Amino acid sequence: MDFLGIIQILDSALRLATPLLFACLAGLFSERAGIFDIGLEGKILASAFLSAAFAFYTGNVWLGLLAGIVASLMLSAIHGLASITFRGNQLISGVAINFLASGITVVVGEAWFGLGGRTPSLMGGARFAEITLPFADAIRGMPVIGPIYSDLLSGHSILVYFGLLCVPLTWWVLYRTRFGLRLRAVGENPAAVDTAGVSVVGLRYAAVMICGVLCGFAGAYLATALSAGFVKEMSAGRGFIALAALIFAKWRPWYALGATFLFGLLDAFGNRYQSLDLFGVDIPTQFMQALPYILTVVILAGFVGRAIPPRAGGKPYVKER
Amino acid sequence: MTITRTLMGAAATLALSAGLAAAQDSEPGLIIDLGGKFDKSFNESAYVGAQRWVEDTGGEYAEIELANEAQREQTMRRMAERGANPVVVLGFANASTLEAVAPDYPETDFVIVDMVVEQPNVKSVVFSEHEGSYLVGMMAGMASETGTVSFIGGMDVPLISKFACGYAQGVKAVNPDANVIVNMTGTTPAAWNDPVKGAELTRSQISQGSDVVFAAAGGTGIGVLQAAADEGILSIGVDSNQNHLHPGSVLTSMVKRVDNAVYDAFTASAAGELETGITVMGLENEGVAYAMDENNADLITEEMIAVVEEASDAIVAGEIQVHDYLSDNSCPVDL
């Protein structure tokens, strides 16, 4: 593996990690406020579908993105209603959302386009174009820095850069603003927040909605940037991988970046080296492709340190009388 | 309350009698496989064949689309019990199920595409994909400027390796020094429906120098062709004619006439002369072919066609033996 090969794998990893990163940060907001969300997958799927559909109808990818966010927000609202207002079981609500999204995208897609749940291919302005960063061409020739800047960092869709920007943003919101402090508190000890006169319900809804917006970005990125259109079940378990990454990252934004990038890297590595000859031992394709999932199991089994979830996570808040 | 119940009862009776009515005349049945009816590929081709039969004969047929793996047996039995005859199932994944179901319905004929099931009432239609892939491989070898071409398969199964092996042999036939990169999308049926991964695999292959990519991956192939068009390299479609998806980027398509298989099965059965056993659809009976139309006319030179046609004739005449991966689960050229 030469230097250029490494750059190309990292480049691919960055693309593959971006939807995971959005979803992971989405889950981070929700779970930090004490609402477990295994409906990330469903939200990504719904957003991918509606963003592709609207981008196709309007020919404008930004309207598509907006529609994707709206779709994801609607599912978030259902989750909020079920688990905050009606104090239902958050896991069950999440599962329901996944099923709902998986079914409804195909049914509506078939009704609108008659293509068996696919949307037509998106062309031109209906997709996110790749952006060339300034001076990318000028410094390409420079050793080391040239390829890193021109090939690795430049040439992604705008959502990739936005996703990377979301990491410090999330950190800042959670740790440097009053809203963030309250949001974290509501996930640890909602009674204390309530005593201080802050609305627990309001904060949790806010967190769930932020989660919806970020999942919207993840879905739109899948359908309108990585590929050109929606295909049924195209989220392919990324919501669950993001959830695993969230636990791996111990519910912290910078760790989330690292964890999702690691998953992206494994995926990219598996794509590039389908059969790998390691010290004379031939590692089969199947193993390489299963690597992200094996890693997930290892992580969830608790090998990577203790991951302590927000203390009030998963429990509906009932006000004392 | 009672009125509603009576109404519901009446509706149920009606539904039952409708079911019985359907059972009396034996219309053919088609079970669309997991990729989905409009996968622009294998299943769509079968659907097109059935539609053509409807247009030509004015007949009707029953159609069910599988939603998941667990529905196979249930759906096959339901079709047979409804009195559909013949029941056409698509894809190798149905073989073991059909093996068990077919003996229970001796009166019903079954047709399976892409796999051999040895039962007295089963017609197995298999294609010489290795021959068609060989021809498009030759085209890829001639069109490539870098000397590196690639292949993306869907699920990692022997049938897809048959495509890959034929393709690689074709490439090597015109350019013995060519490098052929072969990747599979995954090991589960989800691999037929993951365009994002398909696109990523394509980009990975492009970074390794490939400038012609052949996708035999169902719905995943849509992502492959898209990525190839985005990155400005050539691609080769599969099963249906996919040249129109990205005019000027899709070099050709390895067409597998599943539509003819379905059409012939329906027609033969209506005439009461469906023969069970194994049917091989190859180059000589146009079961497989490379697609030419106005979308790829500029990409393919006269010279290329001449070479490929010559090879095609030689294969039909038996002068060129394209190795079939399924015959011994190995490939003479390095994959």
TrEMBL record, chain A:
Single GO term (MF): transmembrane transporter activity
A single cellular component GO annotation: plasma membrane
Membrane spanning residue stretches: 6-28, 63-84, 91-113, 158-175, 205-231, 251-269, 290-308
InterPro entries referenced in this protein's UniProt entry, alphabetically: ABC_transp_permease
Top-level division of the source organism's lineage: Bacteria
Subcellular localization(s) per the UniProt record: Cell membrane
Keywords, in A-Z order: Cell membrane, Membrane, Transmembrane, Transmembrane helix
Topology in the lipid bilayer: Multi-pass membrane protein
Protein name in the entry: L-arabinose transporter permease protein
Native species: Jannaschia seosinensis
From TrEMBL, chain B:
Pfam families linked: Bmp
Signal peptide residue numbers: 1-23
Domain of life assignment: Bacteria
ATP-binding listed as a keyword: no
Cell compartment(s), UniProt: Cell membrane
This protein's record includes keyword Ribonucleoprotein: no
SUPFAM superfamilies assigned to the protein according to its UniProt record, in alphabetical order: Periplasmic binding protein-like I
InterPro entries the record matches: BMP_lipoprotein, Peripla_BP_I, PnrA-like
Membrane topology: Lipid-anchor
GO cellular component: plasma membrane
Domain ABC transporter substrate-binding protein PnrA-like span(s) in chain numbering: 35-323
UniProt KW keywords: Cell membrane, Lipoprotein, Membrane, Receptor, Signal
UniProt similarity note: Belongs to the BMP lipoprotein family.
Name recorded for this polypeptide: Purine nucleoside receptor A
Source organism: Jannaschia seosinensis
Source species taxonomy: Bacteria, Pseudomonadati, Pseudomonadota, Alphaproteobacteria, Rhodobacterales
Gene: tmpC
